[in-house]
Design brief:
The complex is a heterodimer.
Chain A lengths: L2 E5 L2 E5 L4 E8 L3 E9 L4 E7 L6 E3 L2 E6 L4 E6 L8 E9 L7 E2 L3 E6 L1
Parallel strand pairs in A: 2-11
Antiparallel strand pairs in A: 1-3, 3-8, 4-5, 4-9, 6-7, 7-8, 9-10, 9-11
Chain B lengths: L4 E3 L2 E4 L5 E6 L6 E8 L3 E9 L2 E4 L8 E7 L2 E6 L8 E8 L8 E2 L3 E5 L1
Parallel strand pairs in B: 2-11
Antiparallel strand pairs in B: 1-3, 3-8, 4-5, 4-9, 5-6, 7-8, 9-10, 9-11
Classes of the chains: A mainly beta, B mainly beta.
């Protein structure tokens, strides 16, 4: 059974801090790893990673995948209160590309 | 451009009643997904469709759950009879088949079964 473990489960920081969220996985025939942000509503897509070592970046957010060590990190620099959310990591398999297996998520709270 | 539309947004019902959740995917998307989110189990895929055809329903918890997609712009998830343990937020998501991992989620239906 596919397994996705995120850490920490929750994190409280001050505005301006930099945070690193972790996602480790065990999946047969790995295809991709995805990051989603969930505020008090639906998850919204952030990144999809398929290749090791290639950083994906969007504004203050960046992510990288290590397929050898089976993990990914999501970095947020200069955090803002609007970054407060649950960050979800998900993986897919080659044999069932559409089935996203999600981790528990990391609850990030950014205080002013 | 409208996103994924779900209705109702909230539903409170009594155990044993039938519940029907509705979803309209983003126009042009040809894959549709139903998820359930609870505190205990997180976000779980229930079923997904490609071009209106169910592809993987292995996440459907039991026979009380059924899903249909009669056309490209509409899908339903039905629970009959409902039980208190079905209480959860149910999300519908859609994507282009070519990039199915990039899924766009609807606002969800919060279901409470008393």
């Amino acid at each position: 059974e596919d397994k996705v473990v995120q850490s920490p489960l929750s994190l409280v920081v001050h505005e301006g801090d930099t945070v690193t969220l972790n996602c480790s996985y065990e999946v047969t025939n790995f295809r991709s790893l995805l990051w989603y942000k969930q505020e008090k509503k639906a998850p919204t897509f952030l990144f999809m990673l398929t290749s090791s070592g290639i950083e994906k970046k969007s504004g203050r957010l960046s992510s990288i995948l290590d397929k050898k060590e089976l993990f990914s990190i999501l970095n947020i620099t200069a955090t803002q209160t609007g970054d407060s959310a649950v960050y979800l990591c998900a993986v897919t398999r080659e044999t069932s590309g559409s089935r996203l297996t999600f981790g528990e998520g990391t609850q990030l709270t950014v205080n002013p | 451009d409208a996103g994924v539309i779900q209705s109702p947004r909230h539903e409170v019902t009594e155990m044993g009643q039938e519940v029907t959740l509705r979803c309209k995917p983003i126009s042009g998307h040809n894959s549709l997904f139903w998820y359930r989110q609870t505190m205990m189990r997180g976000l779980e895929l229930l079923i997904y469709f490609n071009n209106n055809v169910p592809i993987d329903d292995s996440g459907m918890p039991e026979d009380r759950f059924s899903a249909k997609m009669p056309n490209a712009s509409f899908s339903t998830l039905k629970i009959q009879p409902s039980e208190p343990r079905d209480s959860a937020v149910y999300f519908c998501a859609s994507s282009f088949r070519q990039v199915q991992e990039t899924q766009y989620f609807g606002p969800g239906t919060r279901l409470l079964v008393l």
